[in-house]
């Protein structure tokens, strides 16, 4: 583990400038894909291009609007929690660590962009706004974080540590299995990332991310 001085120096003085530089570069690089994806979403199903989802929990517990391409039907998040026809699906969702396989709310183009993490590209805007980092822990929904801590009470200290930094578009858990990892192991990986945060660790995660995107391993 790196000592706290090294950790703080990297996080306070180096990580943010690198995030901005990379976000600008990636937005330019992915701009053709950004446009094509937006067109395909509009052609595939009615609704907005960006997902209308609740706020996420960010650094120090602050809530923020995460930008993602819409991969589900309109109001999917609300319908899962309120529509009687989705009651059983919601119970599976909670039992499955807030992930669903073969989710009927996912659109045709949504299955593809979720598998290859294309739906995450708009989060580069969150990085520019200072709400996220390129690399960091997962950003959770408020109800997800609350309920999972009830299910795994020993994770509360780990959650506090994870929330001390900005969430990331990619991270240690994403390159270690993505949705195949349960919450307790996922939060432990994110806490491990915070403890060992360094430029070298971020570079290793960034270099592993393209392969995960291409293969779609662990995605739902």
Keyphrases for this structure?
two-stranded antiparallel ribbon; two-stranded parallel ribbon; mainly alpha; single chain; 10 helices; 220 residues
Describe the structure.
This protein has 220 residues and is mainly alpha-helical. It has one domain. It has ten helices and four strands; from the N terminus they run H-H-E-E-H-H-H-H-E-H-H-E-H-H. The chain has a two-stranded antiparallel sheet with strand order 1-2. It has a two-stranded parallel sheet with strand order 3-4. Helix 1 crosses helix 2. The longest helix has 26 residues. The chain is globular and about 50 Å long. The two termini are 33 Å apart.
Sequence-ordered SSE layout with sheet pairings:
Layout: H1 4-29, H2 31-44, E1 56-57, E2 63-64, H3 76-82, H4 87-95, H5 108-115, H6 123-128, E3 133-135, H7 142-151, H8 156-162, E4 168-170, H9 183-195, H10 199-215
Parallel strand pairs: 3-4
Antiparallel strand pairs: 1-2
The count of helical stretches stands at 10
Low-confidence stretches: none
Oligomer: single chain
Query: Mean pLDDT, nearest integer?
Result: 87
User: What's the helical proportion of residues?
Assistant: 40-55%
Q: DSSP strand (E) fraction?
A: under 5%
- The separation of the N and C termini measures 33 Å
Give the helix/strand class: mainly alpha
Q: Please report the total strand number as a whole number.
A: 4
The side-by-side strand order for the widest beta sheet comes to: 1-2
- The Rg value, from CA coordinates, equals 17 Å
Q: What is the ordering of alpha helices and beta strands?
A: HHEEHHHHEHHEHH
Whole-number tally of structural domains: 1
Shape: globular
Biggest pleated sheet: 2 strands, antiparallel
